[in-house]
Task: structure prediction
Amino acid sequence: MGHSYYSYTKEELVGNGPKLPVIVMEDNAEVFHSMAVEMVDEIRKHNENGEKTVFICPVGPVGQYPYFVDMVNEQNISLKNVWFINMDEYLDDEKQWISKDHPLSFRGFMQRTVYDKVRPELVMPEDQRVFPDPNHPEYISELIEKLGGVDICFGGIGINGHVAFNEADSSLTNEEFLAQKTRVLEITKETRTANAIGDFNGALEDMPHYCVTIGINEISHAGKIRLGCFRNWHRAVVRRAAYGEATSDFPVSLLTSHPDINLKITEFVAALD
Result:
């Protein structure tokens, strides 16, 4: 017998008591725009109070960044007191960062799509554009502690419920899984396949086998968690996230009890036909 939540209609998905707030928006553009607005609002609020802003940022979803860049440039919003801590990066077989000009490089993506597009007088200094380093994974949690915590963690949900590259691991208890910090790990074949289809035209043989990722520990301690889902296979993923049991075999389920989390999805993901 399968799990009944996979056949929940949009009304049941939103209304049957999900374990985290599920917000249905018209389309991808509305989801991405709302993420960008939340980024800008948080930065503006902190700038007015002379405070720093710290985000954990994904490369996937990425549709929020063009909106974000436009708002920053048009509204003259300084990012000088903003830290972007990216979630993860692909590694080569020597477990070092893939080169920045590799088509899959998250460092290259952020450079081209965000940092090079923000007006130079507004963009944050390079040392505030942070990626987890396979040679110094402990730097992320040390930096977060030094900065006084993360304001918002933005992200998506992977095919096996992973957030960042915190891959499912049923050998760990929920507590052990939640204790995991930034580290190097091997990417599961499910994730390699889904990412090859979504990001690399299906070129599975050339997909990296390793990554460095921020831990679920750092994510779970962010002040707010904001997730966005929009792909066809997200239809099942969001239903399990909203109604499945909390298990290390589906990592996002371990975040649903966070005091300030929500999941934004499109009408397409909410529908089943």
